[in-house]
Amino acid sequence: MSTIAGNLQAVEATIQAACNAASRPRSAVQLLAVSKTFPAEAVLEAAAAGQRAFGENYLQEGLDKIAAVAKALPDTRLEWHFIGPIQSNKTRPIATHFDWVHTVERLKIAQRLSEQRPPALGPLNICLQVNISGEASKSGIPPEELPELAKAVAALPNLRLRGLMAIPEPQVDPALQRIPFARLRELAQDIARSGIQLDTLSMGMSGDMRAAVLEGATIVRVGSAIFGARHYE
After folding, report:
1. Which of 117, 109, 119, 34 is CA-nearest to residue 128?
2. In this structure, are residues 47 and 70 in contact, taking their beta carbons and an 8 Å threshold?
3. For domain 3-227, which architecture applies?
4. Over the stretch 190-224, which tens digit does the pLDDT of each residue have?
5. What is the pLDDT of residue 230?
6. pTM
7. Which residues 6+ apart lie within 8 Å of 78 measured at CB?
8. Residue 98 · residue 82 · CB < 8 Å
9. The dihedral formed by the CA atoms of 129, 132, 133 and 136, expressed in degrees to the nearest 10
10. 3-state SS, one letter per residue, for 170-224
11. Do 161 and 126 contact (CB within 8 A), yes or no?
């Protein structure tokens, strides 16, 4: 068994245990393998072990990887999620080559993704990124501006607003890890009460995925626990 396959098994066990503790079915949580900075060969190893959803932060690296993996596995359908910051001049290839975008924080970006999404591909799945911890260095819309953005994005054609994403301030204490995740869940519930149905909470990474699952994560974004330490960010 490869190291990646063994790591996937360990992450799977962590998610399963958290689901058990939260009385949630394992099927309620999708594992997104964050393959940024790792080569296509690492994705192929993970795919051979059964992983099907992958997250990329850097556009050109992601596009190169998508092409290389598609060439190596022409009969295997993988799901690609864009989880990095989005510049206006990069929206067309994102809209064309990815299945999900987790990092929408401005209406202008959402409008461009909608306009540039090829209709034949079906709606592009969208999560709005929320700056849940209020950190000046973090991307994301402030919580108080979220309802207006959600309403506008939900109305755009060629997009499907699925939910919210956040990267909270790192915490070691599991109890403290849960606080921002609970807040994100409450924000999603508030939006749902306004009539916009959401089904996705993209939250939790290698160091806090258990806390995220306990608070309702439906997608956990796990990189280093699967692929190992990164050589650069």
Report:
1. 109
2. no
3. Alpha-Beta Barrel (3.20)
4. 999 999 999 999 999 999 999 999 999 999 999 99
5. 74
6. 0.96
7. 43, 47, 52, 53, 54, 69
8. yes
9. 40
10. CCCCHHHHHHHHHHHHHHHHHHHHCCCCCCEEECCCCCCHHHHHHCCCCEEEECH
11. yes
The answer to whether 129 touches 145, Cβ cutoff 8 Å, is no
Residue with tokens 């059964």: 50
Cβ-based neighbours of 113, under 8 Å, separated by 6 or more: 91, 94, 95, 101, 104, 124, 126, 158, 159
Element (DSSP H or E) covering residue 127: strand 124-130
The partner residues of 201 in beta bridges, in order of sequence, read 164
Q: Compute CA distances 229 → 8, 175, 208, 222, 232, whole Å.
A: 15, 25, 16, 12, 9
Element holding 8 (H helix, E strand): helix 3-21
* Domain boundaries along the sequence of the chain: 3-227
Q: Give the tens place of pLDDT for each residue, 37-66.
A: 999 999 999 999 999 999 999 999 999 999
Burial class (CB within 10 angstroms; exposed 0-12, middle 13-18, buried 19+) of 148:
exposed
